[in-house]
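Incident log, structure service

09:12 report received: a user says their structure output differs between two submissions of the same chain.
09:20 pulled the input from the user's history:
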Amino acid sequence: MASRLTALSDLKTAFADFDAMSTLVDGMRRRADEINKLNKTAAGDDEIGKRYHKSVDTGTTNLTSLLKTVRESLDRAGVAGQNASDRFTKADQEAADLARGGKSG
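09:34 re-ran on a clean worker, output below:
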């Protein structure tokens, strides 16, 4: 068991990268939306088009939903990670204050 808990000095920066990942996922979502729009208009309304939509629409809808969930998860993880980093920093500062004989808090 570790005798000391430490946080990486660049922990907050590492979690800030989640914004960049969210931006990438947003790009994928835009592409999926474009594909969905093309799929809606490409096949037509005849029997072949209906069969096409029956097989394709669910997949693209599921992809859009998945990308939305990934985006939301990245955002939550990024915020939680930055909050954890802030707590580590505050705990380090309070420990240093206490070690110097001061008050924490």
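09:41 both user submissions now match this output. Likely a transient worker issue. Closing.
09:42 reviewer note: Helices lie at 11-42, 47-99. The mean pLDDT is 84.
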